Automatic annotation (TrEMBL):
This is Fumarylpyruvate hydrolase. The keyword Lipid metabolism does not apply. GO terms for molecular function: fumarylpyruvate hydrolase activity. It comes from the Bacteria. It comes from Bradyrhizobium japonicum. Keywords: Hydrolase, Metal-binding. It is an enzyme of class 3 (hydrolase). The lineage of its organism: Bacteria, Pseudomonadati, Pseudomonadota, Alphaproteobacteria, Hyphomicrobiales.
Length: 233
């Protein structure tokens, strides 16, 4: 179908730039791994032995490098969570861990912005996390580095600073569930496809943000990302 086949204008296709390419990576879905670094689990007071679980953000919540993100509504406790992003070029159901990396196009750096007060309130009421995790501008992301150029990183520093002061630091090898295991687990829940991205969880050090804060983060060998928090709209 072409644009004339629809009764309203087609929404724009969410996408990320690709390092060294003029073409962009189209994003279909955003999946996020909950509690994948031990120290972050401990700082949040959660069960260290729990299996991985997943929540989603909408693709149009992506924010590009260099953007200013308006402080979101309904919260007084906005937090940062730096994460490795995995970008898929193909997918399927029940992907074996030993075949999972065959489906990876590349990697990027992201921030899972979280309305922590709303997330905690939902958790206490045993409601979905969506109000705390899925909101406009909640998924800043860097350009994608093709795995054909950088390989598949299994270790390397992951970090985030707020106004030049280190807030989060860790290493990819500290992930409880690595990339192949995560793809295997998620593909049992839903059929993955080209254009899906997975945010792989965050190390310890999450903290509150205020309008005017400047964030810089990165993953060694993958890239870096800078965004600012603006005034509420």
């Amino acid at each position: 179908m072409n644009a004339a086949s629809y009764v309203i204008p087609l929404p724009p296709q969410a996408s990320l730039p690709v390092v060294g390419e003029t073409g962009r990576f189209p994003v279909r879905r955003i999946w996020c791994v909950g509690r994948n670094y031990l120290e972050h689990i401990r700082e949040m007071g959660n069960d260290e032995r729990a299996p991985p679980f997943f929540f989603a953000k909408h693709a149009d919540m992506l924010v590009p490098d260099g953007a200013t993100i308006p402080y979101p509504p309904l919260t007084k406790d906005l937090h940062h969570e730096v994460e490795l992003i995995v970008a898929l070029k193909s997918g399927g159901l029940n992907i074996p861990a030993e075949k999972a990396l065959d489906h990876v196009y590349g990697y990027a750096v992201g921030i899972d912005l979280t309305r922590r007060d709303l997330q905690i309130a939902s958790r206490k009421k045993e409601r979905p996390w969506e109000i705390g995790k899925s909101f406009d501008g909640s998924a800043p992301a860097s350009a994608v580095q093709p795995a054909s150029k950088i390989g598949h990183p299994t270790k390397g520093r992951i970090w985030l600073t707020v106004n030049g002061k280190e807030a989060q630091t860790g290493d990819l090898e500290q992930m409880i569930w690595n990339v192949p295991e995560t793809i295997w687990q998620l593909s049992q829940q839903v059929k993955l496809a080209a254009g899906d991205i997975i945010m792989m969880g965050t190390p310890a050090g999450v903290s509150q943000l205020q309008p005017g804060d400047k964030l810089e983060c990165g993953v060694d060998g993958v890239g870096s990302l800078k965004v600012s928090i603006g005034q509420p709209e």
